[in-house]
Amino acid sequence: MKRRLPDAPARATALTAIDRSLLVEAGAGSGKTALMAGRVAVLFANGIEPMHVAAVTFTEFAASELLQRIARYVDALASGEVPDQIALAFPQGLSAAQQANMQRARKAIDQLTCTTIHGFAQKLIKPYPAEANIDPGAEIIDPGEADIAFDEHYQAWVRAHLAGKDHDGVVAELVVADERRGLKLLGELAQFLRRNRDAKPEGQCWSRALVERFIAAANAFANGLDGLHFREQQTDAKCEAFIELVEALDELSPTASPSNRALVDALTLPRHETLFTQNRKRRALQTSGKWHQAAAAAGRSKSDGQQAHDRAKVHYESAHDALEALFSAIGAELLARLAAAMNELMRDWRDYKRSAALLDFDDLLYTARDLLVSHDQIRRALARRFRHVLVDEFQDTDPLQIEILWLLCGEPCEPSITNRLGRELRPGALFLVGDPKQAIYRFRGADVTAYIFARTAIGESGLLNITANFRSVDPILSFVNRWFEHVLSERAGQPGFTELSSIHMGAKAIAVAALKVEDDEDPNAAALRDAEAECVADACSRLIGNVMIRDEKENAGERLCWPGDIALLAPTGTDLWRFEQALEDRGLSVSTQAGKGFFSRQEVHDLIAVTRALADARDTLALGALLRGPLVGLAKASCSIFLMHCRPMRAARIACRISICARMPPRSSTSWHAPCSKSCNPCTEERAPQRPTRSSPTPSPLSTCARSFGSGSGAVPNAPLPMSIFFSKWRARTTCAGCAPSRATCGRTGKMRSARWKAGPMPRRTRSR
């Protein structure tokens, strides 16, 4: 590389140590994609065929980006050039043998496996359908369709259990006790068991001894208060509440296996406000002062009151501990019974997928794991097929995915070893890249604890830290290192923090600007947001084309700022449309990553307006919305004149023509359609393409043709045309839109006139006999 990196030795090891299984911890902006692509290129340079390499990423987009990077490196190395990003791997350049290997790899680059973890699991099981117990023609079901199909099975299962055929059914009892929370619990448990088919409830949850323990604790509390020579009112109320709970739980004590109704009734008992807060947490016993007053009223000393309070507090906490253990056992027992009842639902769901020859993403992972566990010969064959496996974003993998990787890349072990991470990895078989600081996908099953276990299994000798950051300047990295070192340290229960090193010192001046918003004396919220959007848009327009920035991707050094170099962050997406409009008014292209929903997009509004105008010729509101929108882009006054002169049926035909023209290809640098004839001069004139704005979007075929009517002698090209003139000329020369097949010449004026679109009412159509 052109500059010496602080982590150059670690990067060189990650690139060239292809005979070692490594875990590389690389932070954001450290060039992880280049590192993985470089290691793949080094494997090819050392004679490893592409068919023996698998690169696994988290998303399909990341997989395509990684594949493009690999192909670019391979092409460069095959031509004898070494990209700067991987120059550490080839300090002396490529030898003749290495270049020959790269040329062979370039021809077989299609055999490289570069996909997601689910796509990789599919590649593992596809050659062995019989051993994997799947249909050879099974297809991957879309996640949305899978959710809909599972919901249908779930609803049918719930209706069957609520039909009343099963006496004392746990599902019915739970829903009858609390319909909203009961159905919510059933839905969450069904989804959990669907995605975690290995999950099993604890073996023995319920014990009658827990009821007896709570009864003994409550009676001990009451007996302890009876032995005192003075009483305190609040403590007596808490004791009475415990005694009431003992009486309410009387149905649980005589049997070793209580009914579902008894368990549900016990779990849904109202929590007494003297014992619990509104959040259903235990209320502390804070009656020390009142015990002192009670002792004084009885002629006792303050120390006697304190002793009585301490004794009562011990009994109070003991009763609460016993009650908490009892409720936990009741909840665990109900959960176990619900899970057992849902075995039928899970079995029906698996039978449905098997009969329909469908597999979901979870089926891919579990089937691959079972195949590797049950068939050692197949595991060995797959290990020979995929000799080198590289995994990006390793912190986002779950325990099941880690188990698959260790089964595939590990050495054979004894069947008695149940811990899959206990396998010793083959030299160079597994290369992992991850950052525990970015482990944010716990809701998808990712477990950073599994990452820590994998890091421990690899050992310190296989751990590398990549610290150089290409994305941020030194002041930002210094701030992150100072404030997050303790928060993400192992002492705080986190995987650990590694400081990031900067290679860009940044500007000496503070890179923060305060924009002055010009507004009225007493503006409302909407006006203030609009003023802020205008200020931000002005700042962006001044930055673009004037400020020099670094471009590391194309090795271009510095270049002028582009619109794509600016990111606008907002706390919410509610007002993003204001910033979009202000930027588009200045001719700046915008790509929104959040904000508008699907039905709030302008394209959907235009489609709805076209459909409404076609469905009802009298709906001038829909036609006006279409004409005012970016598809046509007429001014407000012009749109009013248009609608005032336009008859309903003609408006419907105009909307139809707009919908047809909207499907035509965009206009090129000359014109969007072929010239009609030599007499139609405006259609053949070349016009420079205009920068798209909010009020004047990229010219559509209709708006281009409309403006062409007014571009004769003395007219300004692409200037807005008064709609009264446009309407009359549209009737006279609609052939310019390529819609009317024939034209006629007016005998009185000599002007071209359409045979189909002529002034006056449309002639009636007569039906031929």
Largest sheet: 6 strands, parallel
Q: Give the class from helix and strand content and strand pairing.
A: alpha/beta
Strand content: 5-15%
Indicate the low-confidence ranges by residue numbers: 663-769
Shape: globular
Biggest sheet: strand arrangement: 3-2-6-7-1-8
- Count of alpha and pi helical runs: 29
What is the average of the pLDDT values? 79
Amino-to-carboxy terminus distance: 85 Å
**What is the helical fraction, as a range of percent?**
40-55%
Radius of gyration: 37 Å
Would you count the extended β strands for me? Answer: 14
How does this structure look, described?
The protein is an alpha/beta fold. Helix content is 49%, strand content 6%. It has 29 helices and 14 strands. Helix 8 crosses helix 9, helix 16 runs parallel beside helix 18 and helix 21 crosses helix 22. The longest helix is centred in the middle third of the chain and has 40 residues.
Write the layout of secondary structure elements.
Blueprint: H1 8-16, E1 22-26, H2 32-45, E2 53-57, H3 60-78, H4 96-107, E3 113-116, H5 117-125, H6 129-132, E4 139-140, H7 143-161, H8 170-177, H9 179-195, H10 208-226, H11 233-248, H12 260-267, H13 288-297, H14 302-341, H15 343-355, E5 358-359, H16 361-374, H17 376-385, E6 388-391, H18 399-409, E7 430-434, H19 448-458, E8 463-466, E9 468-469, H20 474-484, E10 501-502, H21 525-543, E11 548-551, E12 557-560, H22 576-585, H23 602-615, H24 620-628, H25 636-645, H26 648-662, H27 681-684, H28 701-708, H29 723-732, E13 743-745, E14 752-754
Parallel strand pairs: 1-7, 1-8, 2-3, 2-6, 4-5, 6-7, 9-10
Antiparallel strand pairs: 11-12, 13-14
Helix pairs in contact: 1-2, 2-3, 3-4, 5-16, 7-15, 8-9, 8-12, 10-11, 10-14, 12-14, 13-14, 16-18, 21-22, 23-24, 23-26, 24-25
